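Good day; I would like, with your permission, to put a structural problem before you. I would ask you to consider whether the tokens describe a fold that such a sequence might reasonably adopt. The full record is reproduced below for your convenience:
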Amino acid sequence: MRNQDITKLFSAFFTTIGYLFLFFLTGLFLDSTFFTQNVIDTQWFADIAMFTVFGIVYYRATKKIRQFMIHAVVIGLIGEYLFSIVLGMYTYRLENVPHYVPPGHALVLVATMYFCKKSIVKLNRGFLEKLFGVFIFFYGLIFLIFANDIFGFVMSMLVLILLRNKPRERLFYFSMYIVVAFLEIVGTTYGCWFWPDTAWGKIPFLKSANPPSGISLFYFLLDLGSLWVYKQRHKVAWARMKKIRFINQVKFNSKLE
């Protein structure tokens, strides 16, 4: 790979996912135990920061991306109450579902989409898939060895196995894994939420770290749910897009022959 391509890849990463990482570091700090114990005990600052950034991204997005964002917020809200409040899979600092969380799911989805749409990323898709795949394996392995994270390791391996024969989706979900891993480390380090030491706090043989390494597996449901809702609302447009995609693939295969 040329040095110029590496530079462009770094630029593509920092102007999409990198901005999101920076926002995680600053926005979640406003709900951290340090901030709430030493400045003011409220989640409103984090909420305001989230809705401000969400509004900016929404305003600058295309109509299609805006619809995905709204779907992600709705599905994220339902998922949060199900997994956190009902099932006790993880617990937020105030044992609620903070207002900033559902819009945060949408930003994770959009930032990952923007990154994967970059031309330099598409050009180096194979290299990135291998790089991210290796990262996922060793990330899960390190958590397993040093944090006894059986739950996270199982989910990390499932990510690799489920995407093994999914070339169209692989880069997107590998990228989302990395985004979610960073988000979870920041959130749990700040004390914004925590995970029990076993899966759901009820399955003793599935020991878990705080956070478990492969929790992005559940974030995939957010994307799949948003995509399903979009397809149901735009069946004609979706069918047209699939037809165009098929024609382009045929043309591409003909060129290779």
